[in-house]
Amino acid sequence: MYKFVASMLGIYDLFLATGAIVLGVQMVTLKNGTIFSGPFPDSWSANLPFDGWIIPGVWAIAIFGFGNISAAILSFRGKHNSSWYASSLMGAVFLFGLAYQYIAVGEWYIVTSPFIILGVIQLCLSGFVLLLKYKRK
After folding, report:
1. Cα–Cα distance between 54 and 71 in angstroms, integer?
2. Residue 77 region by backbone torsions, left for phi larger than 0, else alpha for psi between -120 and 50, else beta
3. What is the pLDDT of residues 102-120, one digit of tens each?
4. Considering only Cβ atoms within 10 Å of each terminal Cβ, which end of the chain, N or C, has fewer?
5. Buried b / exposed e across 3-36, counting CB within 10 Å, b at 16+?
6. What's the rounded Cα separation, in Å, for the pair 29 and 44?
7. Centroid of chain to Cα 81
8. Diameter of the chain measured on Cα atoms
């Protein structure tokens, strides 16, 4: 059961990494027809340390894309028993980032709720892997 749940956590980490990389690339390239092709909102520029989509896009790729890929690799490696740690760290960083966004900008956006759900699912799966790890012993 432990290996199955750890593999599920790895698949979920890859899902999150794919989403972060795709959205990050869209932010950096500013393709027409995407939600990032418009200008950076003025209300955000006043409260955030950047005024365009490029820096958040690079952060999405570097932190959440590559971070979740690393967590997935640890989950798929059968010898490594701390896969839950990397995934829970990524989930916590994601939720803290959402909290910072709300505190800094002072607004709740339509994608914030689904993102919170994705972060909580990642933390719950990580906790379940940890629980199964200690039940095995």
Report:
1. 25
2. beta
3. 888 887 888 889 999 999 9
4. C
5. eebbbebbebbbebbebbbebbbbbbeeeeeeeb
6. 20
7. 21
8. 54
Dig out the tokens for 125 from the structure. 């799966």
The number of residues making up the chain comes to 137
- In the chain, the amino acid numbered 36 is F
Tokens of 33: 């027809």
Q: What is the pTM of this model?
A: 0.85
Range of the domain at 11: 2-136
- The C-alpha atoms of residue 137 and residue 128 are separated, in whole angstroms, by 15
The number of domains in the chain is 1
Is there a contact between 129 and 12 (Cβ–Cβ < 8 Å)? Answer: no
**pLDDT of 43 above 80:** no
**Secondary structure (H, E, C), 47-116:** CCCCCCCHHHHHHHHHHHHHHHHHHHHHHHCCCCCCHHHHHHHHHHHHHHHHHHHHHHHCCCCCCHHHHH
